[in-house]
Amino acid sequence: MQLKIVLLAALSKGKPLLLCLWGLDKRLSAIGRNACAAIEMLEPQQRNMVKVFVHGWGFHEAPFLVEAIKYAHEGRTIDEAISACTKIADHHFCFSNFLTSATVKKLLKWRPGLFEQGFNVEDDSFIGFGIPVTIREEVLDEFERAGRLMNVQLKEKSMSALQDAEITRIKSDLKPNERITMILCNTVGRPDLGYQYITKMKVTIA
Q: What is the per-residue pLDDT for 206?
């Protein structure tokens, strides 16, 4: 019902609506399930104004929202925005995720299915999750994408060392003709660490 209220508020402007979701399968996320249920509660004419884009990359909505907003500002259609977002999700999207061992242990209890069986992490360590930073030819399905959200790339004893190691990995992943066109840095409670990381990337990856 809460999502229905949000949808009705957005639709009151008389314009079509685009929802960006991680996934629709409730085993991955209840958000997709609840969003679909809210859409079904709308009147038929209202439902026809709502389109859903499923990217499959966990809670990394930001790059797809940025792209969709850009297309909206340019006066492009929702279908054109979905096409552009799909291309990013299928071939261009990459991520790095830095977590403390304490946070990883909480996630392991909350969503054990995202980790390989027998996965464990040392206390007082810092873990870097991510996928290769390159243009992918292979298109991964929703569950394959979910399976790579907790793909461990690096383990270090400090956040600074983890940042340095991840930047080295990113630089080695990029092919000679590839460039990073956009970086979005989300931080929870420590924007200084995000600023530090981006500053290092600017210096190291030209």
A: 62
Task: Look at residue 99 in the predicted model and tell me its pLDDT.
Answer: 93
Average pLDDT over residues 47-52: 96
| CB-based contacts of 6, cutoff 8 Å, min separation 6 | 38
**Are 132 and 191 in the same domain?**
yes
Contact of 110 with 89, CB cutoff 8 Å: no
**Which structural domain range is residue 103 located in?**
96-204
Cα 112 from chain centroid (whole Å) = 19
Indicate if the pLDDT at residue 54 is higher than 90.
yes
Q: Are residues 105 and 28 in the same domain?
A: no
Per the listing, tokens 């999750």 go with 129
What pLDDT score was predicted for residue 12?
Answer: 95
Site of tokens 């060392």: 161
Q: In whole angstroms, what is the distance from residue 98 CA to residue 150 CA?
A: 11
In this structure, what are the phi and psi dihedrals at residue 105, rounded to the nearest 5 degrees?
A: -65, -35
